[in-house]
Design a protein that fits this description.
heterodimer; A: about 1100 residues; alpha+beta; Rossmann fold; Immunoglobulin-like; 6 domains; 7-stranded mixed beta sheet; 6-stranded mixed beta sheet; about 30% strand; B: about 140 residues; Beta-Lactamase; 5-stranded antiparallel beta sheet; about 40% helix; globular
Chain lengths: ~1100, ~140
């Protein structure tokens, strides 16, 4: 019943003032044509909103009512709004008629032309008799006009023309036909626009004036009509604000009308019109909230005003149309820059429109009975020919409460129902839904979008376009599955399955069946599930399934034909199981995540079905990353699909009983190329049906899993209990899919014994005895030994390795790789000696690996396996001894300063800290050029061996040479040593360890004093001593000597003496001492003073001289003893 | 009172839906499901703007011709949705709030049951009775 809710085109357009151009010959006159083009072509929005029409000079305009009504007293309106009124004022009655006339001011035949023009004006005036339409004249001139006031003839002639035509001077225009035509046109246009505005203003005023004559009882309809007219005139005048005000008043009056079944349609139609105008203007005035509020008010008011019950669909159609129109208006406003939000956008209105359209369809189905009346075209003509909007064609102009003729009324209603039955409702609903989908998508409402798509799918289903329905539904099913809204998914699935049935789409049908009878918490009853499973069985056995209950019998017949034709061709199709929630679940796992190269890879495939009845599958296969294994991973069930009960057969048994998980095992030997690689499960495929007829390949990518992935909850974070595998009672939930296994090299049976005695001593050649024992059953070949000090690439530069022979040529070898060894027979041993020389202390790891090939016999197959045995041990390296070198003066007093040319002592002291006894072969000293031996060096440590915590020391006398350096290094001290073994296995070389000798400070003295003293003296025996003073300088030195008296000695010699020593000469001072007391006695102190360096030399000299001497007591005399 | 009460899990699947009348259940399911669009939008907008405590009550999600849908999201992102008829004007915002509060308390009580695994559909009789009392 769309005709009543459609809006006429004149209502939808934006009203613009109408200007009629008369006297233009646009067919034959090029100038006129160009003028016309300037007016009507290229009307950009910045030009005034006017509509132009070209009329003949003698055009008949619609007659204005001549008998102006003076009183409305006896007038009873027959309807609200006339159908032709808007069209008339938009397209027929001009606001201004412009008469174009070719006339120049200097026209030679002025009089004649003037008369002609006046005649034309007269004709137009006559035609417009009584209406307020303005008339104006435009003279088309060839010459450009002179500035105002200069052309005297023009002024005069213009005045005469005006008076002759009875035209105000304001309404006479001149259009020079020159280059600036468009500019002149625009100016003319603006003038006409003003004229048109004043015309429409006047018209509106005229209508307003009628108001005083109206009374509320009989003229209620006129209140609405008049306000509408005023508003429309104002719209033509482009005064939208005033127009809006009057439309509001019209709407207000409309709602005040008495409403009854006979006039309700008319009211609703007109209310729809006015509401449309109101909303449109609100959006135009950028007041969308006003528009929305008006629309809500409108809908709330009329929502319940259904009218005649038999024509209830009409109301729904009208409601739907209202929403649709508002949605369009809203959308239009958004395109012009309005912003909408998620909860307020056109999508809601389109959706509501669709809902009402759906309601309309249901009402139509419910009420409309096809009747045998023909002649619909005639009725349609009548509908279109009505005088007033929204009236019934069988009783036009009727305004009283009761229908005039009940029979006619009944017939009319039946006709309308008949008409409604022919409407393709789906074609109305689906575009509405799809508009809504687009809007909801735009405003971030994916779920609403999906819901609407489901509705579209359902609508296509109702519209019998099953293919499309299937397409739409399959698009959204995924999301409902993902969000686990099972009830919604089920309802979609049911429709989808019906569509699949009706289109005989085997794949979708099977897929939907698999899901519907699956583990979902669906609303399907057991009977439904049973029926579906039986149908599934029929389809797979190449029969047609039973139709779903409640389908259109006609379609079912068609579907049956389709099913019978497509059962001829074999049909194999793939269904991805992870994208649905199927009845069968699969978990595939490798039994172990690492498999040795010589063991069988074992795969277990767990299958479980959840449906009312057992299912027999035809084939199970697992595809692995390496295709060569796939031949081992197949089970084919030899029975037909209908064979019930479990039984053994040649292939295997794929008969699955609901809720009894079953496990299928495959095993194979890994290929050589996969060793140290991995084997992955690519997919698991379960086939249902036979390949010669229909076969559904159910495929799980990877290793499968639960049909419904578990939501992570606290429970799942707890560790799982260990799985106990007992056939038939295996716990599905504890089986974890495991789709990846690594193949590791075969475990080696080689034995490596390492014999050594840690800790290792720094620098020594540490002996490790490697003993390799072949414990394999067979001979091993290609035996390669590698030894490394670090696993990483970075080489250890502090550890030297050598095999068999202890050699170190200064170049560090930190790994020995792939040393070939001999083949080893079973049980045979081979041994190697490894020397390790650690240059630094600390811990290090030594890695020993042996690679070899061995033949393994498995399953009557000989596999050549590459095996590797790795051993690692940690080696701690410690220092064997500590060396402290002491520098001492000749008095064995520790010193840091030595005098040039004066001998001193260097004393290396060895502390053995090695846990092992150490044998010292020799020691040597390498001196720098600043120092020399005072005598020949011979090691005092030769052949010494030290145990832990034992010490050894030697003393070397050295003499510094004259040097310019204040401090000099002495050189190095080298020890040659080795570990002392109880019973040495191999000849072990000595190694040398170098220690640095300390540096000493040098001191240069001008003199040196020597004391010549016997080793000891005896009491009361003469003890001659001699001080020798050397002058080392090239100058004579004056020296004072002063010897202190001593209680222990009497002495003879100079107590105080002053003398000179010549350069490079010595001076002797002789004293005879006579010891008085025995024991360790202090010598008389000698003080030396050099006049050149007063007070400095004494202390230095004192240091270098012995201070004491041992005096023996007098021997006991014999006579005393006697 | 309410015509539909729903509890939706954090992952947006239904834990519990009760509708009155039951014959048009599916429509309410769709209504609740589509309202999640608005819930998600509202929650995400708040999350972006500030770290202040979000109000659990989301207010009116969206109006349809016949029903009003209200939403409430707990701190653990469990959503409550209540649908009331548009014609029912006696229910003001405050009443709806207190309904949600009641629902939340009842949900928490239900959750305290050690035999209930979070994430499973709610089968508690007490909870159901409480919901029925609001309908």
């Amino acid at each position: 019943m769309s005709w009543a809710s459609e809006l006429p085109a004149e209502l939808l357009c934006r009203p613009t003032g109408l200007i009629a151009l008369s006297g233009l010959d646009i067919t034959y006159n090029a100038i006129h044509k160009s003028i016309w083009d300037a007016f009507c072509n290229n009307r950009r929005p910045d030009r005034v909103p006017l509509q132009f029409i070209v009329v003949q000079g003698d055009h008949e305009f619609p007659k204005c009512r001549t008998n102006k009504r003076q009183s409305y007293e006896w007038y009873i309106p027959k309807g609200i709004l006339k159908t032709n009124w808007m069209r008339k004022h938009l397209n027929l009655v001009p606001a201004v008629v412009v008469i174009f006339f070719d006339l120049d001011w200097d026209e030679p035949l002025w009089k004649e032309k003037q008369m002609e023009c006046a005649t034309r004006v007269e004709i137009v005036r006559n035609s417009l008799q009584g209406s307020g339409t303005k008339v104006s004249v435009v003279l088309i001139q060839k010459n450009a006009p002179l500035p105002p006031g200069e052309d005297v003839i023009a002024v005069e002639r213009a005045a005469s023309l005006c008076s002759l035509c009875d035209l105000s001077a304001k309404h006479l225009y001149v259009l020079p036909h020159t280059d600036h035509l468009v500019g002149y046109t625009i100016r003319l246009e603006n003038a006409f626009y003003e004229l048109s505005q004043s015309y429409y203003h006047g018209e509106a005023k005229k209508v307003k004036a009628h108001r005083d004559f109206l009374n509320k009882t009989t003229h209620q309809l006129l209140f609405v009509r008049h306000q509408f007219k005023i508003a429309f005139y104002n719209e033509l005048k482009q005064d939208t604000h005033t127009a809006l005000k009057h439309y509001k008043q019209a709407y207000g009056h409309l709602l005040e009308l008495r409403m009854h079944d006979t006039n309700l349609l008319e009211i609703k139609v007109n209310a729809g019109f006015i509401n449309y105008k109101l909303c449109r203007m609100s959006f135009f005035h950028n007041a969308p909230l006003d528009g929305i509020a008006q629309f809500r008010k409108h809908i709330d008011f009329f929502k319940s005003k259904v009218g005649i019950a038999e024509l209830a669909f009409e109301h729904s159609a009208w409601m739907s149309r209202q929403f649709h129109l508002f949605g369009d208006l809203f959308d239009e406003a958004i395109k012009l820059g309005l912003t909408a939000i998620q909860t307020q956008h056109p999508g809601f209105y389109y959706q509501q429109a669709a809902n009402h359209a759906i309601a309309r369809k249901q009402l139509c189905r419910g009420f409309c009975k096809p009747s045998f009346k023909t002649d619909e075209t005639d009725n349609l003509e009548k509908m279109k020919a009505l005088d007033f909007y929204g009236q019934r064609y069988w009783r036009p102009n009727h305004q009283s409460i009761d229908p005039p003729d009940p029979v006619k009324e009944k017939e009319g209603i039946a006709d309308l129902q008949n008409l409604e039955l022919r409407v393709d409702h789906s074609a109305i609903i689906i575009p509405l839904l799809s508009s809504a989908v687009a809007q909801f998508k735009k405003y971030k409402s994916p779920r609403m979008k999906r819901y609407l798509m489901v509705q579209m799918g359902e609508e296509y289903y109702h519209g019998k376009d099953y293919q499309k329905s299937l397409m739409f539904l399959s698009k959204v099913m995924w999301d409902y599955r993902g969000e686990r809204w099972w009830p919604l998914l089920t309802s979609i699935l049911v429709i989808s399955m019906r569509c699949a049935y009706l289109t005989a789409n085997v794949k979708d049908y099977v897929s939907n069946c698999l899901e519907l009878i699956g583990p979902l918490d669906t609303k399907c009853t057991v009977e439904d599930k049973t029926r579906i499973q039986m149908n599934l069985l029929r389809v797979i056995s190449n029969d047609a399934p039973e139709p779903e209950p409640g389908l259109d019998p006609v379609c079912v017949e068609k579907a049956k034909a389709l099913w019978s034709t497509n059962s001829i061709e074999p049909c194999v199709f793939l269904i991805e199981m992870q994208s649905i929630v199927p009845l069968v679940e699969c978990k595939a796992k490798f039994k172990a995540d690492t498999v040795p190269a010589d063991a069988e890879v074992e795969i277990e495939v767990y299958l479980r079905v959840k449906c009312p009845f057992p299912v027999r599958f035809s084939k199970l296969s697992v595809a692995l990353s390496n295709q060569i294994y796939n031949q081992y991973c197949e089970i084919i069930d030899g029975h037909g699909i209908s064979a019930a009960s479990e039984m053994e057969s040649r292939g295997g048994d794929l008969y699955l009983v609901p809720d009894r998980p079953k496990v299928f095992r495959f095993s194979f030997l890994p290929a050589q190329e996969d060793v140290e690689g991995k084997i992955e499960i690519i997919d698991v495929t379960l086939e249902l049906g036979t390949r010669t007829a229909r076969c559904a390949q159910l495929r799980w990518i990877g290793s499968g899993g639960d049909a419904v992935a578990q939501i992570q909850t606290a429970e799942h974070l707890l560790p799982k209990k260990p799985v106990s595998h007992i056939e038939d009672t295996l716990n599905w939930d504890y089986v974890e899919a495991q789709g990846l296994a690594r193949v590791i090299p075969r475990a080696s049976l080689l034995d490596i014994q390492i014999e050594h005695h840690p800790p290792c001593l720094q620098n020594e050649f540490y002996v490790c005895q490697l003993t390799i024992t072949n414990k394999e059953d067979t001979v091993i070949s290609h035996v390669r030994l590698s030894i490394e000090t670090s696993e990483s690439e970075a080489e250890d530069q502090t550890t030297h390795l050598c095999l068999d022979k202890a050699i170190f040529g200064g170049h560090i070898v930190s790994n020995i790789s792939k040393v070939s060894l001999d083949e080893l027979a079973s049980g045979e041993k081979s041994s190697k000696t490894l020397f390790i020389k650690c240059l630094q202390t600390g811990n290090r790891n030594i890695f020993i690996s042996i690679n070899y090939l061995v033949e393994v016999r498995k399953k009557n197959q000989v596999i050549l396996c590459m095996c590797q045995k790795k051993e690692m041990f940690m080696l701690n390296c410690v220092e064997p001894f500590e060396v402290a070198v002491k520098i001492m003066s000749m008095k064995f007093e520790a010193t840091e300063v030595v005098q040039v040319d004066e001998p001193f002592l260097a004393m290396p002291e060895l502390h053995c800290i090695s846990p092992w006894p150490v044998e010292i072969q020799d020691s040597s000293i390498k001196l720098t050029s600043y120092v020399v031996h005072t005598d020949t060096f011979q090691s005092q440590l030769q052949g010494v061996s030290l145990k832990k915590r034992e010490c050894a020391a030697e003393c070397i006398s050295l003499k510094p040479l004259n040097s310019i350096h204040p401090t000099v290094s002495l050189g190095t001290y080298v020890l040659h040593w080795r570990r002392k073994y109880e019973n040495p296995i191999t000849e072990q070389p000595f190694v040398s360890t170098v220690f640095l000798l300390p540096t000493v400070s040098l001191e240069q003295l001008p003199i040196s004093v020597d004391l010549c003293l016997p080793a000891y003296g005896s009491v009361k025996t003469l003890l001659p001593v001699c001080y020798t003073i050397h002058n080392k300088t090239p100058y004579p030195q004056e020296i004072e000597i002063n010897v202190e008296a001593s209680d222990s000695f009497m002495f003879a010699g100079n107590k105080q003496v002053h003398f000179r020593v010549l350069p490079r000469k010595a001076y002797n001072l002789m004293y005879n001492l006579f010891p008085l007391v025995p024991g360790h006695v202090m010598l008389p102190k000698m003080h030396l003073n050099m006049l050149r360096y007063p007070g400095t030399m004494d202390l230095i000299v004192q240091k270098s001289l012995p201070t004491h001497i041992f005096i023996k007591p007098m021997g006991k005399t014999l006579e005393r003893a006697a | 009172m309410a015509v539909c009460v729903a509890v939706i899990a954090k992952e947006n699947y239904p834990l519990f839906i009760k509708t009155i009348p039951t014959e048009n259940e599916l429509k309410f399911y769709y209504t609740v499901h589509t309202s999640l669009d608005v819930v998600e939008e509202k929650v995400s907008v708040v999350g972006k703007n500030n770290n202040e405590l979000r109000e659990l009550y989301l207010g009116l999600l969206y109006p349809t011709e016949d029903y009003k849908v209200y939403g409430y999201v707990t701190n653990t992102k469990v959503k409550f949705v209540i649908v009331v008829e548009s014609s029912n004007t006696s229910l003001r915002d405050n009443e709806i709030r207190s309904m949600f509060r009641k629902l939340h308390n009842s949900y928490v009580d239900m959750l305290c049951n050690p035999f209930y695994t979070p994430g499973e559909p709610i089968t508690s009789k007490t909870f159901e009775n409480m919901v029925l009392s609001m309908m």
